[in-house]
Request: fold
Amino acid sequence: MSKKRCLVTGGAGFIGSHVVDLLLRLGHFVRVADNYSTGRPENLAHVADQQHLEVVNGTILDPTFVVDAMAGVDWVFHLAALADIVPSIQMPRTYFETNVQGTLNVMEAAREQGIERLVYAASSSCYGIPDHFPTPENAEIRPEYPYALSKYLGEQTVMHWSKVYDIPALSLRLFNVYGPRSRTSGTYGAMFGVFLAQKLAGQPFTIVGDGTQSRDFTYVTDIANAFVTAAASSLTGKIMNVGSGGTYSVNQVVSLLGGEMSYIPKRPGEPDCTFADTKEIVEALGWHAEVSLEEGVAKLMENIDYWKNAPVWTPDKIADATADWFKYLGKSGE
Reply:
């Protein structure tokens, strides 16, 4: 494979920094564009001395910044976005500005620059509460909250620009990504970050519902590999699920982590199961997940100190943080 000049928007974030790692290991030149709204400089500290890495500070809401960041680039990995459910309910305009308008700015810059490949980080949350498992790409789209809708509209923007302006683009719908460098601060969110901080603090794991709900937990290095594999392909205009090939209950995860449990109310708008149908990406790209849940959790435990300064969520704090979730998305399980 020839060496490429790559732009990773959101490259200081959880998933983005792992994409950067892989690209650098493969010998590519990498430019990271990030405004550190959710990303952290520490996520790139281990590669800061790499001569093939450049970091530019700015927002995808600034069209001029995006054009400048994309100058001379071959491949674009668009991961910059606002995540989390509750703040999207509280600040929908902000989410639409970043996840939809920001994506429009990226696609317009890609059109102007004539880039070779663009890969978009989409979200499996667009499926809402699916009818079928594993869930295929042609399942009905049912976003339950503004974050899910904004990411889906961003995906539709990418696909439309790809079609109309002949921009070689792919969209990867990611399922329940976990691993080192997941967010440690801010809004109550991803399960693994919550659980690891609780374990370090000697607090019980706060399990939503009865813990039998299952998720397609996909390790972050497998996700990074999917992005780079997609960029290196000749496919265009396609949407593909990226998942682990299985679905695992929260109770299974807790048994691997080891610790006491505390149960909190089931939340509206959350599926009992997420499970990606990955036949499309397996057949089209030959990609499949390699890290098992047991291996992934073991790797997290090896790096658990990363969460030592993360907030420790208790049932009362979670109830306060998710009050708008219950208010706008329905009543708690009664």
Remarks:
- The first strand starts at residue 5 and ends at 9.
- The domain at 178-215+246-273+291-329 is CATH 3.90.25.10 (UDP-galactose 4-epimerase; domain 1).
- The mean pLDDT is 95.
- The CA atoms of residues 157 and 172 lie 14 Å apart.
